[in-house]
């Protein structure tokens, strides 16, 4: 369990740095877009496409960061009315569902999407990078969310066992 906790701490710190870096890059790209359009009179196509792809990555990695810090959407209005056991079961079910979604949809589906865009190779119109490089964030974020869900699930189970013994 300690190794898994250390892995999640490392991954989550890396996600924080990535999201921060992407946010800084998108600010620079948009500022350049505005400057080139209104001051130079010739809008930069590169900065517009770069900002679009950065926004996708910020959204995906930001979702992983939000889940880790438990600031994701939840229906606490209903769960607060449950008994303590009902709340524990709801949290467990929630983490199981997030884990299954991350594996089935984000990891498996994301890998299929990446492979689909590799053969035949699809290039972005302006940057001329493989679209698969943009889509690779989906399975990467899926793995990060799945690991976090697993840590939350194991923590909930350990806390439940400890509370029944004590």
Automatic annotation (TrEMBL):
Any Gene Ontology CC annotation: plasma membrane
Keyword Plastid: no
Bilayer topology: Multi-pass membrane protein
Annotated keywords: Cell inner membrane, Cell membrane, Membrane, Transmembrane, Transmembrane helix, Transport
Biological process (GO), any one: C4-dicarboxylate transport
Principal subcellular localisation of the protein: membrane
TM helices/strands, residue ranges: 14-35, 50-68, 89-111, 131-155
All residue ranges annotated as the Tripartite ATP-independent periplasmic transporters DctQ component domain in the record: 26-158
Record localization: Cell inner membrane
Pfam families per the UniProt record, alphabetical: DctQ
Molecular function via GO: transmembrane transporter activity
Quaternary assembly: The complex comprises the extracytoplasmic solute receptor protein and the two transmembrane proteins.
Function as written in the Swiss-Prot or TrEMBL entry: Part of the tripartite ATP-independent periplasmic (TRAP) transport system.
Family: Belongs to the TRAP transporter small permease family.
Name listed for the protein in its UniProt record: TRAP transporter small permease protein
Organism: Agaribacter marinus
């Amino acid at each position: 369990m300690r190794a898994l906790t250390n892995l999640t701490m490392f991954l989550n710190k890396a996600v924080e740095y990535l999201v921060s870096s992407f946010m800084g890059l998108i600010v620079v790209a948009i500022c350049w877009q505005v400057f080139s359009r209104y001051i130079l009179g010739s809008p930069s196509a590169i900065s517009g496409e770069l900002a679009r792809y950065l926004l996708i990555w910020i959204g995906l990695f930001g979702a992983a960061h939000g889940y880790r810090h438990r600031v994701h959407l939840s229906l606490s209005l209903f769960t607060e009315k449950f008994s303590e056991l009902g709340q524990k079961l709801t949290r467990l079910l929630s983490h199981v569902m997030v884990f299954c979604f991350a594996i089935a949809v984000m990891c498996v589906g994301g890998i299929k999407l990446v492979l689909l865009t590799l053969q035949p190779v699809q290039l972005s119109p302006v940057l001329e990078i493989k679209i698969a490089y943009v889509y690779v964030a989906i399975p990467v974020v899926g793995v990060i969310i799945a690991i976090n869900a697993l840590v939350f699930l194991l923590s909930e189970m350990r806390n439940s066992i400890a509370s029944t013994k004590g």
